[in-house]
Amino acid sequence: MLPFLLYKNKSSEITTRDIQSTPKKYSRIPICVHLSSEEKKRKKERCRRKTAKRKQNMQEKTKFASNNSPTSRKFRTFFGVINKQGRQKVVPVERIINQ
Fold first, then answer.
1. DSSP of the chain, one letter per residue?
2. Number of domains the chain is built from
3. Domain of life of the organism in this record (predicted)?
């Protein structure tokens, strides 16, 4: 990353300043102006990979829960179901709903 930052100053022309001398509110501006097209592509690709990974993680979390269970957004829940012997056994929600 280059130590330059583009931002508009009060006279509204764009100036290039050193990061150290820029005011705080401009320091979060993404530095895309200086990047070559190749670097921009690489940056976009990395961002795309990250979002894909995040989505996949979310899918893995919700994979176990059925769509109509109240906790389908988060995690699998279990209900205690009493079987024929009178013992309580734990059954996943989706099995109860899908019966």
1. --SEEEEE-TT--EEEEEGGGS-GGGTTS---SSS-HHHHHHHHHHHHHHHHHHHHHHHHHHSSS-TTSTTTTS---EEEEE-TTS-EEEEEHHHHHH-
2. 1
3. Eukaryota
